[in-house]
Amino acid sequence: MSRTPLPRPGRPVAVLAVAAGLFGLLAAPPDAPSPRTVPAAAVAENTATVFYWTKTKNWTAHNLHYAPDGGSWTAVPGVAMEPACTDWVKRTVSLGTAAGLQATFNNGSGTWDNNGGRNYALGTGNITVKDGVVAHSDPCAGTTPTPGAEATVYYSAEALGWSTANIHYQPAGGAWTAVPGVGMQAACAGWWKREIDLGTAASLKAAFNNGNGTWDNNGGSDYTIGTGVSTVRNRVVTANAADPCAATPPDTQAPTAPGGVTATADGVSVLLSWDPATDDRGVTKYQVTRTGGSGGSVVTDVGSTVFSDTNLAERTAYTYTVKAVDAAGNVSAASAPATATTGDRPATPATGRPLGTDPRKDPIYFVLTARFNDGDPSNNRGGSQHVKSGNAANDDPMFRGDFKGLIQKLDYVKGLGFSAIWVTPVVLNRSDYDYHGYHGYDFYKVDPRLESAGASYQDLIDAAHAKGMKIYQDVVYNHSSRWGAKGLFVPTVYGVRDSQWSWYYDEKQPGFEYDGLTVDAKTGKSYYNGDLWSTAEPTGNTCVDWGKPTGGKSAEGYTVYNCQWPSPTSGMFPKALYHQCWIGNWEGEDSRSCWLHEDLADFNTENPAVQNYLIGAYDKYIDMGVDGFRVDTAVHIPRTTWNRRFLPAVQERVAQRHGAEAAKNFFVFGEVAAFVNDKWNRGSVNHSAQFYTWKERKEYDADDTKAALEMYDYEQQQGTGNQPTSTNAFLNGNSYHTPDHSRFSGMNVIDMRMHMNFGDAQNAFSNGKDSDDSYNDATYNVVYVDSHDYGPNKSSERYAGGTDAWAENMSLMWTFRGIPTLYYGSEIEFQKGKKIDCGPGCPLATTGRAYFGDHVAGSVTASDFSQVSSASGAVATTLQQPLVRHVQRLNQIRRAIPALQTGQYSTEGVSGGMAFKRRYTSGSTDSFALVTVSGGASFTGIPNGTYTDAVSGDVRTVTAGTLSVAAPGKGNLRVYVLNGPGRIGTAGPYLK
């Protein structure tokens, strides 16, 4: 993720949204819920039953306000009276030793009958008050009593795990029940029930508890419940609800037929998309039927609302219909047909195919492609900030590196020992400072500033695969550039072009189309803005107060106009496709549904049109043979949307195009940014990395927007203590066990907690293992020290802890669980201590994103991973640096020992600061290793046998289940392998 600050005409005031409060569950003493005091037992002496005539006044409620003779008055408005018989209400009151009472009556809303100001003097026994006349009788004797109002309350304690439930309540105008209330009856799975007689009251206040001091009192506000049937579930009261325990009738209703089916041909492929069908219980899949060509009728099951049909016949018409299927197997009617005619087969068909091996075997080298190595100066571009940033003075255009430069240095990366390369986003970007790739504009087009003749993106993928190296593509689903997304929505205009702003908003040139590379002949710019300005307000403008001065001035002193800078709240972007708010709380619900930066227009990813656009775009790169996706800003999209739409679409496409094994090993790892030292990010499960590695635990609304909110609320209520756990990363004693991935979402994650604590390796190790039970499988975690965004402890600088500390961090990363990842240049402490990103406010050459090519200039040839057969020039010097030699040998050792790649681990029976045992068992492979980093350690209860240290070659024979290791020194380590291969590699500056 990149949030590069940019110069801008003016910044809108952000509207800050605040997330709702959490579910109120509290442990409290029985008398805590105020005003729920237990009434004292009354002395059963004199009583009066007061009957009051209702027909004359026709009030909707009746209260008796009274004082026993010599006693105190009740609190206004008194006590509620209950139905007695037709036209009469009554109330029986205790008088103690008093022989009568003073009384008045009211409707609870300020209307009184106080006997003309004299009050009523009443005695004991049965008393009637009718139109001001007092008499002694029971007017309802021999009649059928009028029934009072009833409330039937269903309460769901499913999320709480209660074994019993009580309802503590107060009818409107009445008194609370004694704590803890009255017991509720088990009604059906997940529901408790209680029927309550309300008398004349029209509602009640209620709280629920488990009888052992744990309350649900609606966050301290209590619940208001009316008459009839009501349900209370997840803090939501549903009035006039259906009986949740009524038998569910069988589902016989088919979904609606899908609408909006469109088919678009591209060469010999057809991209099909449609609007979601609706169903009373939810659509589970779609059936796409193709007719045409020589293959007859072909039916394909699809999990999303987009389908790419490939490798068809040339110049052939194909017709498609789509049906929706629900969980019960009900099938909708077919959609209206859509037809597309294919064209010619591309002259150079895509040749890519992912390597398809276990991603844990492949250490990752992370490059900013535009800053790594310049293979073709002709595609270099400086952009609108070239001079202002200081880049021009350094002859250092922001777009400098390219695929050709990376292809030229694949042997450098392989010589370091890395077998996977993570490249920054490759799609066409559009921004004033977009070299990093996170401002996507045309998601279907590779940015021409990265490509050259003979060095396309496809060429890079193929060249890497030929060397046994994978390509992981950085992808963005959360946002587009502020210029919109070509093919989905591009705004007509942003600003007013007057004499002051003509330097920024160019005159439109017919026939010119932005691609980032091509220079407009009239303006001399490749960052041309021509279709985004207007002198007069454009037809169809949606931006509020377009063209009116804001009252502010730019840094240059120019007048700033409304709509001159993108904003989610101005109406520039359609609500259906883009969110309409700024993030106010980074750990609130709005962080998943609002803009995080002015230059990053936030997609409404719950909209099917947006989903189809993104799925179709990334299908293209899957087809090219990339080996995985690093997902930018994954936390800013609801987990339900990932699990329902994007992740299944990736799996479906890889399997369709490259086979089931490739799909199994297609590596998706998300950036779920959390910059605090918490197992759970500030206590919020929805904003924590491990949360995204799990499938959903329950069904939500079929509508993705509603489902996202339901899931958010449900999981926040569950809290951190009631999340799923896993043993997939852990040994069972000394034994490896088959991991259970049945609840895996399809997304692995970057280990943000280790990253934030890598200021000290011991802290990273302790924090990492503390979190591992909460991931689906932490052996797939991507682990790094620093990156293009941050260093440890949310530092804005590249790591500068020193060479020894770097060596120690690397030794831990390459032997502990997870996939070690190195940000380009860290092997020589490139730009250590330098600010990683200061936007165009300083030259790139002074930042952590500086150009690296000077350090790899010359020639280099790798004969194998970690093996350089020849090198000359600057790269030869680079390859002699101490951390280069260190990482080369670490990669050799890790590659030779399966336990260090895919093994589970344990610290049981292990002493030492950073010490652990790992094992991987599969078929004839049984790899068991004992590891200690920097410090000494002892291992007890281990299998007997011969252990050989892969670092020093030391051999130990264990006969009593114990092995002790002296401290090897900072940055060094010991890896004793049972029946191991012996010493691996040669001694270096740290591993010796």
Automatic annotation (TrEMBL):
Required co-factors: Ca(2+)
Occurrences of domain Fibronectin type-III (ranges): 254-345
Keyword Nucleus: no
SMART domains in alphabetical order: Aamy (SM00642), CBM_25 (SM01066), FN3 (SM00060)
Source species: Streptomyces tanashiensis
PROSITE patterns: FN3
Annotated signal sequence range: 1-27
One Pfam family this sequence matches: CBM_25
Ranges for region Disordered: 336-360, 373-394
Protein name: Fibronectin type III domain-containing protein
InterPro entries xrefs: CBM25, FN3_dom, FN3_sf, GH, GH13_cat_dom, Ig-like_fold
Organism domain of life: Bacteria
Biased composition (Polar residues): 376-392
This protein's UniProt keywords: Carbohydrate metabolism, Glycosidase, Hydrolase, Metal-binding, Polysaccharide degradation, Signal
